[in-house]
Design goal:
248 residues; mainly alpha; two-stranded antiparallel ribbon
Amino acid sequence: MHPVLFTAGPITVYTYGLFVALGLAAALVMVLRRADRAALPRAMALDLLFLFFVAGVAGSRLFYVLQHAEDYAADPARIFALREGGLVWYGGFITAASTGLIYARVHRWPILRLCDFFAPVVAVAHALGRLGCFFNGCCYGRITGGGWGLVFPGDTFRRHPVQLYEAAALLVLAVALEWTLRRRPRREGVLFIAYLAAYGVLRFLLEFLRADQVPVAGLTPPQWTSLLLIAGAAALGARLRHGGRPRT
């Protein structure tokens, strides 16, 4: 793994931070190139992207710190050391989605259309973030005897590179969502529901290969959250079936 990309004098570039930045850059390019086609003002999409990024980073860091409070009790300043990694994706997603929903409601923006629009964007940015996790050596997997396993820092045995599994699956999901967004008619919100359900199932299954989580009542916290995500997708789907309107 390569947590530090390079050092030049007093400047140190961390690989994790680089991939977070690349995720934001990819999201920015996607938003600018797709906004007109989705009949969304670029200013609206960019405002939400910036809001999602700030709220997502803050929420994901907060959830991580709360889960590892004992590690920061002696040195609270480390809470802001994002270069070390330590972001909980579900925490960031919940925070960003909640903040964006409130912001869109206040401005009376088309919420379901925006949800569909951002679903592939989030998947691509998330995939790049997972690559950052891989190079940082965090979010590691269980020990495996398979030849595809990799030796992580401090280990003498191979582990599942679950970060790479998830990054690849997210990119496939992003392509599928984007293809559907361009070619197939559907009700507004259906694409977002598909994203929620697909990622919920993906993360639930991948957690069986992770080794950095402590189970609670038989499942890891991300698995319980995945179940809530899948249930939320089902509830939203049922609501759209009964009261949703077709895309125009």
